[in-house]
Structure formats: C-alpha cells, structure tokens
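Translate structure to sequence.
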C-alpha cells in the first residue's frame, strides 16, 4: 500500500525560519521548537511514517536553502545546518512521544480485553467485536494452553518474547493470541489447530526451565475461551495435588478426577472409612499412603514399587501386609484394589491427611 501524501502543513514556517537563521546566525527559539514538536505529534497521529517526514524536511531544506547562505559563507551554512538539526530533532521528539502514548493506550486496551476475556466479564457480543481487533474470531471454537514455571512471567520479559518469537516464526499466518495472566504464559488458538498448542507447550516447557503446561478443551463462542482457560488452570492445580509430573497435561485426559470429587462428602467418607485406620500406624498415615500411591502408579508391580521407594521387596511386602491388617483391604487383591485406589486418589485430591475431613 502506497504511503499517503503528506500535507504541506507539516512544514509550516520551516523555510522562513531557515532564512532568518541564515541572516542572523541565531539558534531556534523555544516557541519554534515547541511548534515543531506539535507538528511531529500531529503527523504521528495522522499515521505518517517518520522516515518519510524526515525526508520531506531534508528535501525542503535543499529547495528553500536561503540565498543569504551563499553570501555569508561557512558561518551561515553552519547556522542553517544546526537549525535543521534542531528542527528535525524537535519534530521527531514530538512524533515519538505521540507514538509512545499510542503504544501505551494499545497495551492498556489489550490488557483490558484479555482480562475481560479470561474472566468472562463484559457483554459477550461486545467482547466478540473487540476480539477481531486482536486476531480472534470468537464465534469459532478456541482452546487455551497455560504454562506455569518457577517464576512469574510478564509479556515484556525474555521468556515470553522467546516463546512468542518461536510461535510467530512457525505460525505467522494463524489467528493466535499469546499473553500472560497471573504470572503464567497463556496461548489462545483455534480449536481446529491443536498443533499450535502442542508447539506452544514444547516451547514454553523449555523456556520456563521445565515448567508444566496444561491444555483446556476446545469450546465455542465468547464464553468458550474462559471455559477452556478454567479447565487448563484446574488441570495445573490437579497436577499439583496429585503430584502429576507430566510436562503437558490435557484436560480431556483428566475428566475422571472432577467426576470423583463432584460429591465431595461421599469421597471424604470413603477416604475416612478406607484409609482412616492408617493413622494408627507408627509414623502416621503418610508413609503407608505414599506406599499405596506409588504401588498403584507402578501398576501394582512389587519390584518396580520397591525401586521407586528405595526399599527392598521384603520391606515393601511388610508395608503392604501392614496396610492389609489395618484397613482390612488387600492391595494385591483385585476385589479390594479398586476401592483402595479410588480412596488414595480421593486422599490426594482432598489433601488428606494434612487436612481433616
């Protein structure tokens, strides 16, 4: 697209000013510099390019070079060139101030939109209209990935910039929004493009020094983004409570856990009745609960469980027998195993025995 023609008013008073400088050798006054700054601000607000504006000033300098300069020699020439430098510098200063103000306004508008989008605030119709400005079409399904690392991240730090650069290099034509929220990296992408979020997860995991990434399910409409975002946050919280160490978690793979805790009271009753007797053991319930958790994670294979716990198989067998004696349920018996494993999952979700049920 061609650069729009620059109106002559942005050179207002420029040629006469140079002529007077050539005659007197004076420097530009404060009022003259303020006038150039004002014109620079107005040029920026009008959408013109600084390079073209500077070129316009230099061309005008050549065209309107005061004849007196040739009569007064090097002194006048030096004074005129100094005035040109002052004038262009003041003009560029006004231009850059206006640009910085525009950038701050854009950043504030973007942050307000992101807050409204991820908190589900604002009128949904209006939210969908604002979204087009930031490259999202909320009438379609979107999914959200959230990355949490050892530090709190902002949009301006090196981690965010490196992830954003990688995404733009790989998916420059895609409708993607990368941001931060509450110290976490957030990526919003069309639900039909799971490769974007997979790549984001890979880049974010590396950039955050092994941080964990959770991916929500795709949902349609303006409210779909906040729904997917909430799922990703819940997956991260679940990973913390369940000690899940997978680098990437998919909310779709973890749906069983919300189902198990939907009736919190029933789950608490199961944990108390099935695992409560473990509190009678020497050292409390925690060591035996940890043994059960690792045993089930290892597929109920005694040798592997013993290795993960740094125990001998004989010591592990003693612990399993102790659990059987206290609870009445045998971890190695398929009939009892499901109930015990469900209770162990419930204990993790409810943070028992640290929290009283």
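Result:
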């Amino acid at each position: 697209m061609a650069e729009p023609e620059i109106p002559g008013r942005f050179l207002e008073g420029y040629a006469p000013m140079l002529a007077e400088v050539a005659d007197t050798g004076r420097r530009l006054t404060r009022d003259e510099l303020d006038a150039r700054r004002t014109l620079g601000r107005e040029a920026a607000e009008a959408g013109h390019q600084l390079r073209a504006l500077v070129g316009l000033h230099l061309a005008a300098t050549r065209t309107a070079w005061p004849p007196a300069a040739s009569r007064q020699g090097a002194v006048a020439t030096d004074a005129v060139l100094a005035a040109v430098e002052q004038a262009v510098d003041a003009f560029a200063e006004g231009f850059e101030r206006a640009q910085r103000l525009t950038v701050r306004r854009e950043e504030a508008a973007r942050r307000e939109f992101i807050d409204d989008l991820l908190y589900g605030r604002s009128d949904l119709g209006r939210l969908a209209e604002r979204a087009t400005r930031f490259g999202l079409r909320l009438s379609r399904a979107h999914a959200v990935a959230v990355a949490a690392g050892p530090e709190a991240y902002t949009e301006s730090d090196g981690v965010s910039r490196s992830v954003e650069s990688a995404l733009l290099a790989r998916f420059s034509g895609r409708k993607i929004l990368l941001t931060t929220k509450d110290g976490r990296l957030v990526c919003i992408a069309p639900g039909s493009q799971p490769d974007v979020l997979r790549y984001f997860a890979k880049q974010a995991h590396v950039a955050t020094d092994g941080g964990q990434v959770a991916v929500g399910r795709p949902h349609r409409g303006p409210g779909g983004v906040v729904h997917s975002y909430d799922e990703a946050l819940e997956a991260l919280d679940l990973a913390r409570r369940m000690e899940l160490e997978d680098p990437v978690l998919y909310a779709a793979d973890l749906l069983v856990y919300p189902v198990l805790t939907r009736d919190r009271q029933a789950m608490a009753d199961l944990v108390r009745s099935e695992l409560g007797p473990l509190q009678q053991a020497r050292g409390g319930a925690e060591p035996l609960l940890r043994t059960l958790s690792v045993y089930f994670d290892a597929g109920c294979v005694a040798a592997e469980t013993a290795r993960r716990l740094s125990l001998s198989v004989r010591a592990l067998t003693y612990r399993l027998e102790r659990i059987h004696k206290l609870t009445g349920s045998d971890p190695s018996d398929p009939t009892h195993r499901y109930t015990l494993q469900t209770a162990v999952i419930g204990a993790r979700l409810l943070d028992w025995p640290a929290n009283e049920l």
